[in-house]
Structure formats: C-alpha cells, structure tokens
Amino acid sequence: MDDSSLDEGPSVDFGRATLEIAKENEASHQSQGETSSRNTVPEITSANNVPGVAQTPKNVTTLPFKRLDAHTFFSDRNDVVERAIKDCTDTLTKDVDGEIIGCWLLTQISLWDTEKERLVLLTQNALFSVKYDFISLKALEFSRVPLSEIDTVVNGELVYPPTSLVPGRNMVGLQLMWNKGKPLPLEKKWNPFVKNIPWLTFASHPLFWHKGTDLEKMKFDVEGLHVALVSLIGENCHVVSNSIVLENYLGLGALLHNRNALGFFKIRGKVSF
Fold this sequence. Notes:
The chain is α+β, with helices and mostly antiparallel strands. It has one domain (68-272): PH-domain like. The protein contains six helices and eleven strands. It has helices at 14-39, 80-91, 186-189, 214-217, 222-230, 252-259, and strands at 100-109, 115-123, 126-133, 138-146, 152-159, 172-177, 199-204, 238-241, 244-245, 267-268, 271-272. Strands 1, 2, 3, 4, 5, 6, 7, 8 and 9 form a nine-stranded mixed β-sheet that branches. The chain has a two-stranded antiparallel ribbon with strand order 10-11. The radius of gyration is 28 Å and the shape is globular.
C-alpha cells in the first residue's frame, strides 16, 4: 500500500521525543501496577465454580424458549397458579401424606418425549403430579408416588441418543425412578397408551425463562423440586448427577406436539385448549 503524503511541517527530532515518551510510559505503568495491586477486588465465587457443587453443563442454553409468547399461557394469569395449588392441596392430599413441603408448575416429559404441563405437590411422604385445567380451574387427573418407593433421583442435562435425529433440548431436568434398576418391559416400552411407567421426568416450565424476578421464577423451576426432594428421601435412595437420556430417535409426532405446546393450556387464536 502506497503511503499518502501530507503537507510537510516543521522538522522534529522524533528519536529524542520517542525516547522521552517511552520513559514516561514505563514510569506510568509501574505506578499503575502498584495502585492496582492495592485496589484489587477479590473475585466473587458463584455456586457454579464452588468445588463439590453440581454444575449446569456449559452447552445448556439460558433461554430455550426465547421465541415464546408467555402471555398465551393461562398459567401466566395473576394468581391462577396459586389458586390451583390451593385447590389441589385441599382436595388431593390426605393426613397420611404429611405436611406440604413445596408446590411447582413444571413440564413433565413422557416416555414418548411429549411435554405436559403438570402441577407438582411435594409432601413429607408423597409426590403428586396433577394435570390441572387452567381454563375451567379444576384438576383433571393425578398420580401419587410414595417417597419411600423412589430408589433413584437423577439430575442433569436432557439429552437424546447419539443416533437420534431429534434436535437437542438444551436444558436440564430431574428424573425420579422406582423401577429398582430393572429395564422397562417391551410391552410397555412400545405401547403409547401405557401409563404405569416406573419413573417421572420433569423440566422447568417454559414460563421460568420469562419471569423477571427470582421470586416469580421459583414456582416454575425444577431445581427447587430437586433440592426439596433430596432433603426428604431416605438413605437407600441413590442421588445421581448425570445426563437424562430420552429415547426418541425420530419422533415426528413428539416434535409436532412439543413445538405447538399441545400439552399446555394456551390461547390458540380464536380457541383455547
């Protein structure tokens, strides 16, 4: 590249000027280094870099549902979730279940990788997963699992097998198992209508990523259930931090179901279901 010539100015001894500037810069750097060492702020350590604390995988995105319109969910309306919790605790829980420990609105993932909106109630002795109609405000169905039957709790990233064609979920989940380590029989594994599967898989509700404050997010956060559950289960239960494999290899039906959020009560144009 050719240098462009500017108008010539007065002659200057650049060598001497450069030497003086270099000395000034060296003195300035030494002074700044001494000041910096005195004023250094200690590094703040978060839970993600504390030894012994389970860390969220680095490839898990912080906003899986960034294109979601949160206001289309009926559960986003004021006090609707609180009313649902009160209804379910009053009608479903019994004295034998013990004290209510916590309640969350989460996403339950079925054996066939379909997402369903579920209200989760945790008591001292049992866990309830409730399908609640947020339009008519009533419980439609529920399942109850005694905590004494749970033998394994897995917390980790939701992943698909290496040969799966399904796009990654990029989120963490929680799986509760009471199958005593036994594989699922084939007649159940390939039956889309079977219900008595010996495990439950949960993830955070989509609204978790669209709430402003930590207080608002708590009731949609699967990590809250994880922490509360671990504090209750017995010593015979194995608590594992590992990836949760969802055995979906093609799953076009599940992909369409989840992409359109058919397992959630939402406003869908002129209709709501």
